[in-house]
Amino acid sequence: MVAELKNRKVQFITLQLHEAIPASVKVVITTAEEADTVAWEGEHTIIYDDPISTVSRAIHAEKGYGPVGSMIIGIDPGRRPGIAVLTGDMVVAVHQVSVTEVEPLIRKIIHDYRPTSVLIRIGHGARLVTTQITNSLLQAGLKVEMVDESGTTPHIGRDVHTHTLRDIIAAINIARIKGVPVGKQEVEPSKGEIRVIQEASRSMSSGRATIPRYLARQVARGELTIDEAISMHKKNVRNDDAPKNGHEDDEQ
Prior knowledge:
The protein is an alpha/beta fold. Helix content is about 35%, strand content about 15%. The strands form two sheets. The protein has a six-stranded mixed beta sheet. β3 and β4 (about 80-85) form a beta hairpin. The termini are far apart. Residues about 245-250 have low confidence and may be disordered.
């Protein structure tokens, strides 16, 4: 908890239960077990959950924002999607994670902030990634809009040496553009796209397995994550249901 507070440059003090809480303190963080013994008459007592979510809720309370109403989450799809979390017109959090981490991260964001409503807006580029993320979010029961992301990626000056900043800004811009509500996405991947996924599976398994084309096609369609496909392929190999050398069967 202390490390997270320091990392986010939040001013704080630590107190023992018997110590008086200074009048300048606006938020108290404590555990559920000790909450009733804290002599505190202020408005904002935050019960510890985990470091990141607890600090996020404490900052939100300290700023006086009150309960989170509507939340919009923008996603710039790509190899490592950029994610921006907005409440009103304020950006409250940004992230960049792998494709398979997007849906779990968004579920955690919703758990941390507990908004009254959530809308996901995702850019229309990187069609296979967009399809995979969209389907996973829809399966989680979230509302998703597809946004024309043309012009959302900013020019980055030569003195800025990071792709992350570009992806994050694009995600913020996407979150602010009204999109079109979408349902489950269907896409037929090309042979080249399937081959890229197979190569990725071999790299991720340290050269021990290359998933067959039928599994790579399911990954491309967003029906499986690449980790799930690798696991299924290894299980099939062990059960003698797939080639034992770990390479694809071109007839599948």
